Amino acid sequence: MANIAAPALRRALSNLLLAVAAAVLILPVWFALVASSYNGADFLAGHVGLWFGKHGLATYQAVITGHGIVAMALPNIGRALVTSTIMALLITIGKIAISLPSAFAVTYFRFPLRGFWFALIFVTLLLPIEVRIVPTFQVAANFHMLNSFTGLTLPLIASATATFLFRQTFLSIPEELTEAARLDGASPMRFFIDIIIPMSRTSIAALTVILFIYGWNQYLWPLLVTTKTSWSTIVMVIGRLSQTAAEGDPVWNYTMATALLALVPPVFVVVAMQRLFVRGLTEMEK
Amino acid sequence: MAGIELGNVSKVYQGSVTALKPTTLTIPEGGLTVLVGPSGCGKSTLLRIIAGLEEPSSGSVTIAGRDVTKVEPADRDIAMVFQNYALYPHMSVYDNMAYGLKNRGTSGADIALRVNEAARMLGIEALLQRKPRALSGGQRQRVAMGRAIVRRPKAFLFDEPLSNLDAKLRGEMRVEIRTLQQRLGVTSVYVTHDQLEAMTMADHLVVMRDGVIVQQGPPGRVYDEPDNVFVAGFLGAPPINLLAGSVGEDGRLHLDCGPQVDLPAFPKLQPGRKVTLGVRAEAISIAAPAANQQATIELIEELGPNRLLHMRFGTAKIICVAPREPALRPGETIPIQLDTAALKLFDPETGSACR
Ligand SMILES: Nc1ncnc2c1ncn2[C@@H]1O[C@H](COP(=O)(O)OP(=O)(O)O)[C@@H](O)[C@H]1O
Ligand SMILES: [Mg+2]
Fold it and tell me: pTM for the whole thing?
């Protein structure tokens, strides 16, 4: 009897555990959603509970159109979303476009000082943007890259992590395939395009998600390299909104609404890539 | 002359591992040459040197009269079938077979013609739109062969192409490859460690050991006249019985395990000389009228058409193939006879055959 009950019990327990974990993860989002449906006064009076208030529509109208919060010299939120999306996409595409060929080179080609060049790529791991922010800013300023997508993205594009991950993926491709391609008369570039890239799409999908979110979450660098409000990213807008607390008139409802809107593009990317990602996994050869 | 010629080809990996000692070999045109030997003996290295996937440390490779030592693999006019098939997993069967032709700039119509022809030959027309993962092992094997056939190369190279298949399928594919090869008449080099595959498929058998070719020739002849004890032991299942002994004053062979054997085929042996006797399992017959030896049955393995008798012969163990009749039981001592014409003698020091 106990033996029969055991699997069912275990399943129930693990389901419970999953439900609790999901609730813990979803709770902040829920709070943000609820909070965005009250007006500023309710918020300060501590009227916000676990259920929605009556001002949800008004909050989102205000946030999207800019009416009511224009006074704070905030950038248009739609525009900030677009800026952020383009920036994150450029960073993602740029990083992948650079690291795919560089991983290909260090994996498949024998050239002088290969180990040295590979190590050099690795050293850049020690130099994230925060470490080199002042000289990088100076360079960006000297090249007139302030307030431009070039300035927002270029200094962030070089990626040792992606290069290394792609190298690992390439190393897992059986050598016999490389040899078959050689016998099939594929030039190195054909081999790269026809065989390597299609066989790496799982890694590409996973990295797209990671890199898009990395790009999306950039805060310090965009703050420095943009001097006009029209170039603000959505993360900068959230930052600006939450600073209002210090200025005496916090608009938590707007902050929460903006934060939720800022979730939409990354979630979209995750969902879109997840499908490809899962398909890639199930299609993998034994 | 138009087969494959290897002139003093050798291979040393990373300056230390000698995989292949200087080897000269002529692979006859149009036939199937099998390179056989235990794992690590350098068969794949030799094949990969022919393919151009491995650069020889010395020597030259000539395919169909053209020196290709410095030629890229793709331009050697050869096709290779790999052990793990090496199909491109993201491409359909059709694209897998067409890829080499596309890279060579063959026209689409011509590609379609050739792929369909090869697919018909291999019975895989219905699979052309599938991805490799949706195929069974045998089907993948056929696709890998199709990819080789469409190229219409001067030579096919096979590196243990059947070792990932189960025994039954291996038997079928063996016949299929052999039939196809004979039909196409393309010079083929086939690497295997399986002596049965080697014996059954080869026109020309090349036995290798430790980076050296130890014997070559038609498989029947290599089997009947092994040049040394290694070849004798490597070919044949059950393996040849090897018994140590020395030649007596009477010209008979005194085996260390006890019995004495007549050696009419070796009249010139020095008395006192130490030799190793090789007796194939099928060279021992039981209950023959002229039987002059005795052995005690220890174990009987039924094979169906016949059976293997594991016997004690003096103090040594021997195996013989016997018909199903008469009924025998373990423990029984029976008269046996060694076919004196089929006995082999080897030098115990050098391993080479005494003739
Ligand atoms: N790329 C390599 N680097 C170093 N040693 C190798 C390499 N390939 C094969 N060898 C060595 O060369 C010898 C012959 O290998 P191989 O030709 O693959 O043998 P076989 O195919 O007969 O099993 C083995 O000792 C093997 O370890
Ligand atoms: Mg091998």
Answer: 0.84
